[in-house]
TrEMBL record:
Membership in a protein family: Belongs to the peptidase C1 family.
Keyword Iron: no
One Pfam family cited in the UniProt record for this chain: Peptidase_C1
Keyword Nucleotide-binding: no
Name by which UniProt lists this protein: Peptidase C1A papain C-terminal domain-containing protein
UniProt-listed PROSITE patterns: THIOL_PROTEASE_ASN (PS00640)
GO annotations of cellular component type: lytic vacuole
Cross-referenced InterPro entries: Papain-like_cys_pep_sf, Pept_asp_AS, Peptidase_C1A, Peptidase_C1A_C, Peptidase_C1A_papain-like
GO molecular function annotation: cysteine-type peptidase activity
Length: 235
């Protein structure tokens, strides 16, 4: 299993270097499916592309601790709500079996016989950055919420704003971290997180974003979730 985890992280690094990535489509939906794809690979050795559209059409879960915090198609939602839906429904289909349509006006067409990946459990990760890094290595990509204001003008390097609200408004996928990268605004090297965004390959660094790993900048450490998968073979 340790070899598989190392191979997975190396594969992620190679994707970042070459820009060979699946074009991201949505926000919290992409964050949730991406995390489950990584967990499924660690559990089974199988790489799959899971259906965001299934979550758009079928996931209407609500956070029991926050009134009105319900998943609502393309209007957004919470990553943990998406995991709860996947756990209750039995899992997610492949992207090819339940393709993206770009609309949230369709009826739910979920076919349980075509489930490609299933959730075993999920949990919220501590704000401690060492714990976040440890969970990333152990469980693969993590679902993260972030304040996206500085992402909108990002073109490269390590984003390290002096002031950034911790009010999260965007779901992303935490896929890696580094000990040292150049932060233009600080004029020096800083440790960083590597984020996979949902705005396409032409944004940022081939669809990825690097943000300073210190002091919970832009709320990146405040809402981090990990998911574990069980082995399910699509029929």
């Amino acid at each position: 299993m340790q070899t598989r985890r190392r191979s997975f992280l190396l594969a992620i690094s190679q994707l970042i270097l070459t820009g060979v990535t699946t074009v991201p489509l949505l926000t919290s939906k992409t964050s949730a499916t991406g995390a489950l794809e990584g967990a499924h690979y660690l559990a089974t050795g199988e790489l799959v592309s899971l259906s965001e559209q299934q979550l758009v059409d079928c996931d209407h879960e609500c956070d029991p601790e926050e009134y009105g915090a319900c998943d609502s198609g393309c209007s957004g939602g919470l990553m943990n709500n998406a995991f709860e839906y996947a756990l209750k429904s039995g899992g997610l289909e492949r992207e090819e079996d339940y393709p993206y349509t770009g609309t949230d006006r369709g009826a739910c067409k979920f076919d349980k016989s075509k489930v490609a990946a299933s959730v075993s459990n999920f949990s919220v990760v501590s704000l401690d950055e060492d714990q976040i890094a440890a969970n990333l290595v152990k469980h693969g990509p993590l679902s993260v919420a972030i304040n996206a204001v500085f992402m909108q003008t990002y073109i490269g390097g390590v984003s390290c704003p002096y002031i950034c609200s911790k009010h999260q408004d965007h779901g992303v996928l935490l896929v890696g971290y580094g000990a040292s990268g150049y932060a233009p605004i600080r004029l020096k090297e800083k440790p960083f997180w590597i984020i996979k965004n949902s705005w396409g390959e032409n944004w940022g660094q081939n669809g990825y974003y690097k943000i300073c790993r210190a002091r919970n900048i832009c709320g990146v450490d405040s809402m981090v979730s990990t998911v574990a998968a069980i082995h399910t073979t699509a029929q």
